[in-house]
Write a structure and sequence with these properties.
Helix content is 5%, strand content 37%. The longest helix has 18 residues. The C terminus is likely disordered. The chain has a domain of 65 residues. The protein is mainly beta. It has a four-stranded antiparallel sheet with strand order 7-8-11-12, with no helix packed on it. The N and C termini lie far apart (57 Å). It has one helix and 21 strands.
Length: 344
């Protein structure tokens, strides 16, 4: 196919696309946007470590072509920290000109940094609500063994090397409002040491957001561990932080990312790692049924045992029966604890 034919096809495609766009609908290059900008360690960098061959240890080096391969952004497993930082909040107008609405990068140090994330534009497009995570930085580490340098390497134990990027470990996070036209910032008051993030605007003018550590409630310990973080619950408030309301008082998991739907309801994600709900893939389950008195007995912590799945098909329970009739593969109610059986 000739270049001229290619050109004619492209002209036809883009001409049709322009005809399909209704009049009065803004194109992508005509709409102002707000986004977060974080530095990336995308350049190649040397990775040095020990190499053992024939019982002799030497130091070897390889070039890693992409330094940001392990730089994470916030998601359900790290909603309040351990993601890339520092990050600025940037406004880009319809002509492509940019200005910083909130600056974290220029004054960032290892001991004190911030990340401006979770931006949400108000319905009148005049104000942006966003989150400022504050805390120290830690270098991202990558792991490797001798096989990275030579397939014939004898040292298979892993060692760690610092990568180019950094992650933030926030001690607190705060919701901030910024006026797009003037750049005026309005930090909203919050209890020190708490995490307040993920704001979204509601049609009644209020803000919904997620918050952790406001109440002394910890999520149940996930996956047979002794680790438990503060429960993340959903709140709403006026734009001046008055009339605070706890929306999900019984939530024990992570209530995240609220978003109002067209019919007025608010959708959210709920990462329910308690009860091992997130780990029921292809494993068989069993529960401590009851004590001699017939009532369910609470376990101090989940216990893992190695067994093979009872069948090749995964059974993912979706509802819980009453506490009086616990069944295999289902939750026995609030007074019992599940233990996950891991495949051998």
């Amino acid at each position: 196919m000739t270049t001229r034919t290619h050109k004619r096809i492209l002209q036809g495609i883009f001409g049709l696309a322009g005809w399909l766009i209704p009049e009065g609908v803004a194109r992508a290059d005509e709409v102002p946007i707000v986004y977060s900008r974080c530095p990336r360690g995308h350049q190649a960098f040397p990775f040095t470590g020990p190499l053992v061959k024939g019982g002799v240890t030497t130091m070897a080096t390889v070039m890693v072509p992409n330094g940001d391969l392990l730089e994470p952004l916030p998601e359900v497993a790290r909603p309040t920290g351990d993601f890339v930082a520092p990050c600025d909040l940037v406004y880009r107008d319809e002509q492509g000109s940019e200005r910083i609405l909130y600056d974290c990068i220029s004054g960032s140090t290892k001991e004190s940094s911030c990340a401006a994330l979770d931006d949400a534009v108000s319905f009148d497009a005049k104000t942006v609500a966003f989150t400022v995570f504050r805390g120290p930085l830690a270098r991202i580490r990558g792991s490797a063994n001798g096989k990275l340098f030579d397939p014939a390497a004898e040292n298979l134990d892993y060692f760690y090397v610092e990568l180019l990027g950094s992650i933030i470990q926030p001690i607190e996070s705060q919701i901030v409002l910024v006026d797009i036209a003037t750049g005026k910032q309005t930090p909203l008051p919050f209890p020190p040491g708490t995490q307040n993030f993920g704001p979204t605007w509601l049609s009644n003018g209020r803000l919904a957001f997620s918050s952790a550590s406001r109440r002394p409630i910890h999520a149940p310990m996930p996956l047979c561990t002794n680790a438990s973080g503060p429960s993340i619950q959903l709140y709403s408030m006026d734009p001046d932080a008055r009339n605070l309301e706890l929306v999900s008082p019984h939530a024990l998991a992570s209530e995240l990312h609220p978003l109002q739907l067209m019919d007025g309801r608010v959708a959210l994600s709920s990462w329910q790692d308690f009860g091992l709900l997130a780990y029921r893939h292809g494993n068989s389950w069993s529960f401590r049924r009851s004590t001699s008195s017939g009532s369910p007995r609470r376990r101090a912590s989940p216990r893992c045992t190695s067994v093979r799945p009872t069948s090749g098909k995964a059974s993912i329970p979706t509802r819980s029966p009453p506490a009086s009739s616990p069944r295999k593969g289902r939750s026995a109610g609030p007074t019992s604890r599940a233990r996950r059986r891991l495949p051998a």
